[in-house]
Amino acid sequence: MRDVLDDVPSEALSGIFKNFFERLRRHKHLEEYTILPNVLMCTIDGTQYHTSKKVALL
After folding, report:
1. 56 in any annotated domain
2. Which of 8, 17, 18, 57 is spaced 20 to 30 Å from 30 by Cα?
3. Could you tell me if residue 45 is inside a domain?
4. Mind listing the pLDDT tens digit of every residue in the chain (58 residues)?
């Protein structure tokens, strides 16, 4: 799936995303992710793009 979507410009999906996001908001499915007024918590998994074989100890 990633190979297919990597060739699609993000602008091509913008309208679909906005429509889907608005439907989720309108039906109150996003309320549990609100952390401040008008601010939603969003987690992003970037492990397929940013990986390292080194272990960092902080």
Report:
1. no
2. 8
3. no
4. 767 777 888 888 889 989 999 999 999 999 999 999 989 888 766 666 656 666 655 5
